[in-house]
# Entry
Amino acid sequence: MKKIIASNFKTNHSRETTREFMEDLNQYLVQKEIKNDVYVFPSATAFDKFDLSENLIVGAQNCYHTKSGSFTGEIGTIHLDEFGIKTILIGHSERRHILGESQKEVALKYNYFKALGYKIIYCFGEPLEVKQAGLTETLGYIWEQFDGIDLSYENLILAYEPVWAIGTGVSATIEDIATIHRKIKKKIDKPLLYGGSVKVCGLQDILEVPNVDGVLVGTASWAVEDFKKMVYIASKMDGSSKIIQCEKESN
Ligand code: 13P
# Structure
């Protein structure tokens, strides 16, 4: 399976810079004949009618479980339909821990978008104190984040994003990633991404970990030149071709 590369813009990029990013990235995929699935999750205000390759997919970072209605500050599926968006992130750590979405709410949202056939990238991961309590506690915490989630759903991609690694600049170690991904894959046969301070230079090592099917990147993906490097590295891991060596760089 080709590695999946996804960029979560979070609360970054304007409408104008999102368009520039998408056009630049699309041109790059075409030029390099890259066929990996590449996802970008821009801010909802930057949704637009982009002319993109089939394997470059725009998704929503969030959407309320409604078509439309009175939910001040939220968007509904009419706002996604307008741009043909059929992919959504659900369960992201920032929505759980900063915006207070409970597992019940996350599951409700999951089931709503599942019923509509959306591709769901379902995020989960433990906070630092749980990690420090040990592997059993960590796995217990993760399984609870699957409460109410139909893991047999055909359009499901999982993303393991340990809370302590998100936005901290400190990625999980290769050993941590290998352990958690092995445990999850044993039980759930779905594509499984890693996310949490993934950078250009660490990407190759992470993608080589067994049971890592791709990455979900925040900070290090926001500069299009860096994201293109990531996409390129991922594309070169599929065949027997030599993978580019990453030079020392800040990213
Ligand atoms: P960072 O890459 O900034 O750690 O964010 C990861 C993430 O939350 C992607 O969804």
User: Anything to note?
Assistant: The chain has one domain: 4-235. Residues 8, 92, 161, 166-167, 195-198, 216-220 surround 1,3-dihydroxyacetonephosphate (CB under 6 Å). The chain has a mean pLDDT of 95. Residues 9 and 42 are 5 Å apart (CA to CA).
